[in-house]
Design brief:
single chain, mainly beta, four-stranded antiparallel β-sheet, 1 helix, 15 strands, globular, disordered N terminus
Amino acid sequence: YYPIYPGCLLISCEAESPLGPFKLVHPVESGSFCGHVGDMNVFKDTDGNAYVIYDDTSFDICIDQLTSDYLTSQKEGIKLLDRMVEAPTMVHYKGKYLLAGSGVHEFDPSETTLAVAVKVTGPYSEKQTISQQNTWQSQITDMIYIPDADYVMVMCDQWFVPDKNDISKSHYLWLPLMYDPETGQGKLEYRKSWNPMKPFEK
């Protein structure tokens, strides 16, 4: 899946390999009020169901379940978070659904917020800020569960770093997420260097 601007429609493509070549299947209408999406991500749950998570072009974060072949949205348009969040990403960890996003700042860095729920469709807790210094000059883009070390790795875009004139050279910032399932509190901590298999050793 990827968005087409300025129409902000989804299209689905498929291939025999992650490297392609990909074949266009069809456009996909979402469950947003206009059928369009802004920033989006895809989440596959432990039961095999998959979802597309997106902002509905007014920066409310919504979710639609995908059909069993993952190629079409069922268009529920269930609102998860209120306005002023984009770049949503979700992971299932310690029995909870963690939903994170960035502020609405285009390519500029922003703080990262996190909300937690016991069901994929919510209700979600109040957003909590889990970063500092505008996520160390980045924007969150994905969360990945690392089963061998039992933690969540966070991937962040550092747009126009190191070259302010060439977005294609942009870097990623990778950080471990510290999350307490008892309190529901999360925290990102900057690490200049760290071992992905021993993320909390300093």
